Amino acid sequence: MPGYGVLPADQGRGLLPWFWAERRLADSHEYWVSSVRPDGRPHAMPVWGVWLRRSLWFSSSVRSRKYRNLTGRPACTVTTDDAHQPVVLDGDAAVVTDPGPIALFLAALNEKYATAYAPEFLDPAVNATLRVVPRSVFALDDADFTGSPTRWSFPRG
Protein backbone atom coordinates (compact mmCIF):
# COMPACT_ATOMS: atom_id res chain seq x y z
CA MET A 1 0.00 0.00 0.00
CA PRO A 2 1.99 3.02 -1.23
CA GLY A 3 2.22 5.93 1.18
CA TYR A 4 1.70 3.85 4.30
CA GLY A 5 4.86 1.76 4.07
CA VAL A 6 2.89 -1.48 4.13
CA LEU A 7 5.14 -4.43 3.41
CA PRO A 8 4.52 -7.09 0.77
CA ALA A 9 2.66 -10.20 1.97
CA ASP A 10 5.89 -12.20 2.37
CA GLN A 11 7.50 -9.66 4.74
CA GLY A 12 6.78 -8.69 8.35
CA ARG A 13 4.86 -11.41 10.12
CA GLY A 14 2.85 -11.93 6.96
CA LEU A 15 -0.83 -11.93 6.27
CA LEU A 16 -3.18 -12.71 9.13
CA PRO A 17 -5.01 -16.04 9.08
CA TRP A 18 -8.80 -15.98 8.78
CA PHE A 19 -9.21 -17.59 12.23
CA TRP A 20 -7.47 -14.49 13.70
CA ALA A 21 -10.19 -12.23 12.28
CA GLU A 22 -13.01 -14.63 13.16
CA ARG A 23 -11.81 -14.80 16.77
CA ARG A 24 -11.99 -11.03 17.07
CA LEU A 25 -15.36 -10.91 15.34
CA ALA A 26 -16.64 -13.44 17.87
CA ASP A 27 -15.01 -11.88 20.93
CA SER A 28 -15.73 -8.18 20.36
CA HIS A 29 -18.02 -6.84 23.08
CA GLU A 30 -19.41 -4.00 20.99
CA TYR A 31 -19.53 -3.45 17.26
CA TRP A 32 -19.89 -0.17 15.40
CA VAL A 33 -22.42 -0.31 12.57
CA SER A 34 -22.04 2.41 9.95
CA SER A 35 -24.86 3.03 7.52
CA VAL A 36 -26.01 5.81 5.20
CA ARG A 37 -28.95 8.13 5.84
CA PRO A 38 -31.42 8.86 3.03
CA ASP A 39 -29.72 12.23 2.43
CA GLY A 40 -26.32 10.52 2.01
CA ARG A 41 -24.82 11.47 5.37
CA PRO A 42 -23.08 8.71 7.35
CA HIS A 43 -24.52 7.28 10.55
CA ALA A 44 -22.65 5.11 13.10
CA MET A 45 -24.00 3.39 16.20
CA PRO A 46 -22.61 0.83 18.66
CA VAL A 47 -24.47 -2.44 19.04
CA TRP A 48 -24.18 -5.72 20.89
CA GLY A 49 -23.89 -8.58 18.46
CA VAL A 50 -22.73 -12.10 17.80
CA TRP A 51 -20.65 -13.68 15.08
CA LEU A 52 -22.79 -16.63 14.03
CA ARG A 53 -22.85 -18.69 10.85
CA ARG A 54 -20.12 -16.53 9.25
CA SER A 55 -22.22 -13.38 9.66
CA LEU A 56 -22.59 -10.61 12.23
CA TRP A 57 -26.03 -10.62 13.90
CA PHE A 58 -27.56 -7.83 15.99
CA SER A 59 -30.95 -6.40 16.84
CA SER A 60 -32.37 -2.95 16.38
CA SER A 61 -35.58 -1.15 17.16
CA VAL A 62 -37.66 -0.86 14.00
CA ARG A 63 -38.08 2.84 14.86
CA SER A 64 -34.31 3.51 14.94
CA ARG A 65 -32.38 5.49 12.35
CA LYS A 66 -30.01 2.51 11.99
CA TYR A 67 -32.85 0.14 11.06
CA ARG A 68 -34.41 2.61 8.63
CA ASN A 69 -31.03 3.25 7.00
CA LEU A 70 -30.23 -0.45 6.61
CA THR A 71 -33.63 -1.40 5.23
CA GLY A 72 -33.36 1.44 2.71
CA ARG A 73 -29.70 0.91 1.80
CA PRO A 74 -28.39 -2.44 3.06
CA ALA A 75 -24.70 -1.76 2.35
CA CYS A 76 -22.88 -1.12 5.62
CA THR A 77 -19.59 -1.33 7.46
CA VAL A 78 -19.22 -3.01 10.85
CA THR A 79 -16.11 -2.72 13.02
CA THR A 80 -14.98 -4.49 16.16
CA ASP A 81 -14.27 -2.50 19.33
CA ASP A 82 -10.47 -2.91 19.47
CA ALA A 83 -8.50 -0.18 17.67
CA HIS A 84 -5.22 -2.08 18.19
CA GLN A 85 -6.41 -5.23 16.41
CA PRO A 86 -9.35 -3.98 14.36
CA VAL A 87 -11.52 -6.05 12.07
CA VAL A 88 -13.61 -4.11 9.55
CA LEU A 89 -16.42 -5.92 7.75
CA ASP A 90 -18.13 -4.54 4.64
CA GLY A 91 -21.36 -6.24 3.72
CA ASP A 92 -25.09 -6.07 3.28
CA ALA A 93 -27.57 -6.11 6.14
CA ALA A 94 -30.74 -8.15 5.86
CA VAL A 95 -33.68 -8.42 8.22
CA VAL A 96 -34.14 -11.97 9.51
CA THR A 97 -37.75 -13.07 10.04
CA ASP A 98 -37.44 -16.87 10.30
CA PRO A 99 -38.06 -17.87 13.95
CA GLY A 100 -35.43 -20.66 13.87
CA PRO A 101 -32.40 -18.46 13.13
CA ILE A 102 -33.79 -15.75 15.42
CA ALA A 103 -33.90 -18.28 18.28
CA LEU A 104 -30.27 -19.28 17.57
CA PHE A 105 -29.24 -15.63 17.60
CA LEU A 106 -31.10 -14.97 20.86
CA ALA A 107 -29.48 -17.98 22.55
CA ALA A 108 -26.01 -16.85 21.41
CA LEU A 109 -26.70 -13.27 22.52
CA ASN A 110 -27.89 -14.39 25.96
CA GLU A 111 -24.83 -16.60 26.39
CA LYS A 112 -22.33 -13.97 25.25
CA TYR A 113 -23.72 -11.10 27.31
CA ALA A 114 -25.04 -13.12 30.29
CA THR A 115 -28.55 -11.84 29.67
CA ALA A 116 -31.89 -13.63 29.79
CA TYR A 117 -33.87 -12.02 27.00
CA ALA A 118 -37.06 -13.90 26.21
CA PRO A 119 -38.17 -14.52 22.61
CA GLU A 120 -40.59 -11.59 22.92
CA PHE A 121 -37.56 -9.28 23.05
CA LEU A 122 -37.06 -9.92 19.35
CA ASP A 123 -40.68 -9.43 18.35
CA PRO A 124 -40.20 -8.34 14.70
CA ALA A 125 -42.87 -5.65 15.11
CA VAL A 126 -40.69 -3.95 17.74
CA ASN A 127 -37.06 -5.15 17.49
CA ALA A 128 -35.72 -6.49 14.23
CA THR A 129 -32.97 -9.08 13.95
CA LEU A 130 -30.39 -8.12 11.35
CA ARG A 131 -27.64 -10.18 9.80
CA VAL A 132 -24.66 -8.70 7.94
CA VAL A 133 -23.09 -11.08 5.45
CA PRO A 134 -19.53 -9.97 4.63
CA ARG A 135 -18.44 -9.04 1.12
CA SER A 136 -14.97 -8.16 2.36
CA VAL A 137 -13.16 -8.07 5.68
CA PHE A 138 -10.03 -6.07 6.51
CA ALA A 139 -7.89 -6.54 9.61
CA LEU A 140 -4.53 -5.57 11.03
CA ASP A 141 -2.47 -5.98 14.17
CA ASP A 142 -0.81 -2.74 15.25
CA ALA A 143 2.06 -4.77 16.74
CA ASP A 144 3.02 -5.44 13.09
CA PHE A 145 1.27 -2.47 11.47
CA THR A 146 3.23 -2.56 8.21
CA GLY A 147 3.30 -6.34 7.85
CA SER A 148 -0.12 -7.51 8.94
CA PRO A 149 -2.83 -5.67 6.94
CA THR A 150 -4.96 -8.38 5.38
CA ARG A 151 -8.11 -8.32 3.26
CA TRP A 152 -10.45 -11.23 2.60
CA SER A 153 -13.08 -11.17 -0.15
CA PHE A 154 -16.19 -13.32 -0.21
CA PRO A 155 -18.32 -14.24 -3.21
CA ARG A 156 -21.87 -12.97 -3.23
CA GLY A 157 -24.73 -15.38 -2.97
Automatic annotation (TrEMBL):
Keyword Oxidoreductase: yes
Source species, domain of life: Bacteria
Entry keywords, A to Z: Oxidoreductase
InterPro entries per record: F420H2_bilvrd_red/Heme_oxyg, Pyridox_Oxase_N, Split_barrel_FMN-bd
Gene Ontology cellular component terms for the protein in this record: cytosol
Name used for this protein in its record: PPOX class probable F420-dependent enzyme
Keyword set includes Transport: no
Domain Pyridoxamine 5'-phosphate oxidase N-terminal per the UniProt entry, residue ranges: 25-122
Molecular function terms from GO: coenzyme F420 binding; oxidoreductase activity, acting on the CH-CH group of donors
Gene3D superfamilies: Electron Transport, Fmn-binding Protein, Chain A (2.30.110.10)
